[in-house]
Amino acid sequence: MLGRILGAVTGDAGRVEPAALGPRFQEALLPGEEVLAAFRTVRDGFALTDWRVMVMDRQGVTGSKTEIVSIPYRSIHRFSVEAGGTTDLDEELKIWDRAGVEPFAFSFRRGSGVAMAAHAILAQRLR
């Protein structure tokens, strides 16, 4: 319980069921598209499907405006996991696409295994 509260305050992502990303995420899925894993912070989230990474960016004070960014696996240039050190509380997954200079970065609680699970899915999809 304390870990969930701390994660909510720090913005660390945790693995969730795809339905937890909300109705706008469900609407953005294509017919027959399979969600391999979904992750959510307090407001934002992302999912790895069978052919793309979907990033949900809720904007504004209420978070009612939502941007959904789709990154097809074929356009991912590189990705990395930054494992937490002794004093670090988090691990970070970064994804670079061909179009952007800045990576998409997602923070996870250290020791949860979620960053490496997302990394493994990306490695399988990009081989």
TrEMBL record:
Pfam families with a match to the protein in the record: bPH_1
CDD domains according to UniProt: PH-like_bacteria
InterPro entries: PHb (IPR012544), PHb_sf (IPR037063)
Residue ranges annotated for the Bacterial Pleckstrin homology domain, each copy included: 9-120
Full protein name: PH domain-containing protein
Source species taxonomy: Bacteria, Pseudomonadati, Pseudomonadota, Alphaproteobacteria, Acetobacterales
